[in-house]
Amino acid sequence: MASLSHPAVRNVCFIGAGYVGGPTAAVIALYNKEVTVTVVDKDVARIARWNSQHPPIYEPRLQEILRITRDGTNTYQFNQNRGGNPPAEISHVTVGRSPNLFFTTDMEKTVQTANIIFICVSTPTRHEGEGAGSATDMTAFETVAAFIAAHAQPGVIIVEKSTVPCGTADAFENVVRRSLPGLYFDVLSNPEFLAAGTAIHDLLYPARVLIGSARSGAGQRASQILASLYNWVPKDRIITTDYFSSELAKVAANAMLAQRVSSINSIAAICDAKGADVDEVALALGADDRIGPEYLRAGIGFGGSCFKKDILSLVHLANSLDLEAVGNYWLAVLEMNSYVKHSLVTRLFMGLDGLVADKKITVLGYAFKHNTNDTRESPVHDIIRGLAFRKLSEIAIFDPCCPTEHIEQEIDNIHGFGTATAENGRVSVYQDVQHACRGAHAVVLTTEFRDFEYEALQMSAEASIRQKKLADPRPFRGAWPTEAELLSLHYFLQQCPDKPTPSAKENDNDDPLGQFNPMPPCQKDCPDCRAEKNKTEDKGKMPNKKLNWKDVHANMQAPYLVFDGRGVLDIARMDKMGFKVATVGRQSRAEWAEWHKKVEPVGTHSWI
Q1: Residue 496: active-site member
Q2: Which residues form the UDP-glucose/GDP-mannose dehydrogenase C-terminal domain (predicted)?
Q3: Which CATH entry fits the domain spanning 255-455+546-598: 3.40.50.720, 1.20.910.10, 3.20.20.190, 3.30.470.20?
Q4: What's the Cα-to-Cα distance from 588 to each of 273, 274, 315, 575, 591, rounded to whole Å?
């Protein structure tokens, strides 16, 4: 779509190759074959990894979309049942596509040629200056905005993807128009609503796409042009508003999601004190349509780069408007989250009867949630701080998505000690989950990876496979399959190696349609390649089998304590195997009585 002031969209630029910019650019490129999508970042190593077979972030389905958009595809053929009586099977040919997704460090060239520029840079909490500890640090955003103003072509549409304070778009427009009165452009707010671990699914099937613009004809035309890039999203899910409301809606959405997590965790604390079951309480709450079941899973609190910083930003905004009660309300959400994480460590020591010297504790999960390698603001950081100086013999860490080298480097950077030099004991990072648990006195589950769940030993392998099978998406709804339907067919055929397509290469289950080109090579210092060389698996060592709890028990030491911080274990079955299971708000009456004897009186909680 083009107008008198905006040229037709041929080039789209994403500034920032992180957890938002990379996946969003990939899906935009997937559905807009005729548009060149370029992701630019000043981090040379990060861009090199995006241009390799091992991208810097792990998200389910991201790799396949990169192979389509970044590497291009071959023409391929498959059969489709068209229905009828008798059913008619026809051959469908999908023509190969050229690459239209690129990653580069050349910001000047990319910005100069772009019709639409998405700003996807980090906006963390400010640590210095006015508003330190709550205000948003806009340094990276402002630097990028100034660069765009100096190099962009007239008619460019600038899109805020980064989470920014309410009023940023308006202020940006006013500053640039005063300093560069001859440059015509529009600023839009288009916040992301992605959850780590489901980012690609959230992009393919969004609950809503929010676009905020100036209250003017030009702003609304720019909004329509941006909406045209989201051509796969039903029109009733594209919400257009002013950019003040859009910016505030993003921050408010994260704050309210975090609020639900803290709310159910506060109820879990009461359940622990009274012997109630928080899952039963949550079931009753979620049955109320006014509440709903989402985000009512009690655990060790929220993490990630968004919730905490966005609540702090909301607190700063409220205080700047002299709304002290509003600011205090949202601060209470963060205080509850801190309480939950700190109380976990206290309860761990209680479970070990306070005798922690020379004990080994294994932490399963380092990322802030499952199916991601994003470790920003992970609850595990607080747990490590609480454990590191308690004279343990070892703190063992395993995560199926985080490369070992990354965990080791981050522990050194954040906690100030190396993995082999922690005071009064060592912190070890394992590549094998069974080895990590070997010799442990306690195991702590901090992320809800399905690989950590208790699987009934009686379930046959055949039943397990059957349970996971995907449905064949054919026949497709329309005359031509959508990109999402072709992806679904790809995943369906992967689980059916006995049903090859005419284009498929023999014994290549990674490419059952025969569409992919070879992946680009990695740099010599690629950490994932080094991990593979050491016989670990690709994509962050994702294991193929669940944790074998029977073997874990055989190799643990008394008291065989397992703290389920995410509510993923079958407590009754674990108890029969000889484990002593503790969790958040889910103890049986007998377990509650045992814990209740050890609980510190109210007001004497030991904060770390």
Answers
A1: no
A2: 362-468
A3: 3.40.50.720
A4: 12, 11, 39, 11, 5
